Amino acid sequence: MRLFYRKKGTGPPLIIIHGLLGSSDNWLTLSKAFAKDFSVYMIDLRNHGRSPHGEEFTVNAMMEDLLEFMKDKQLDSAVILGHSLGGWIAMNFAVRYPEKVNKLIVEDFAPKEYRDDLIGFMRWLLNWDISSIKSLREADQQLAEIFKDAAVRDFILKNLRRK
After folding, report:
1. First to last CA, the chain
2. Is the dihedral of CA 5, 125, 85, 147 positive or negative?
3. Which of 87, 94, 97, 102 is most buried, judged by most C-beta within 10 A?
4. Three-class SS of residue 9?
5. Which of 49, 47, 59 is nearest to 1 (CA)?
6. How far is Cα 126 from Cα 53, in angstroms, rounded to an integer?
7. Is residue 8 scored above 90 in pLDDT?
8. Which domains does the chain have, with CATH numbers?
9. Could you read off the pLDDT of 20-31 as tens digits, one per residue?
């Protein structure tokens, strides 16, 4: 899958992988500082931001997307920074492809078993039937039945797109 990305700076490559329901937008401010020393690649994971949406939504699929991205950009190796879900992907990527990772930075994720409610939340989102939704307002109303916090709903809504 060809991922959307933003690039800033010059120097050794630094690839930033955002968290669940995030996008490259989350890293625009910090990337300015990193760009003083690195070529910063901020990717949008599949089913996030401006990247294509696909049926498969697994860590393995996202690791393969990252590998394809690096091949496409002719990056033999890079510093990989992953936040939350991005950290999960980055750690697994480093284990599977250690030669591709110069340094690994993981933010807000630990190598441990995760609660069933987090997995349930992800499954609910993946199974949410949005085909009949006519507007973001209608989507927000459906989400409000499950998520009381408007900021959480806004974060989810940011990733909705019409086909």
Report:
1. 17
2. positive
3. 87
4. coil
5. 47
6. 11
7. yes
8. 5-107 (3.40.50.1820), 128-157 (no CATH)
9. 889 999 999 999
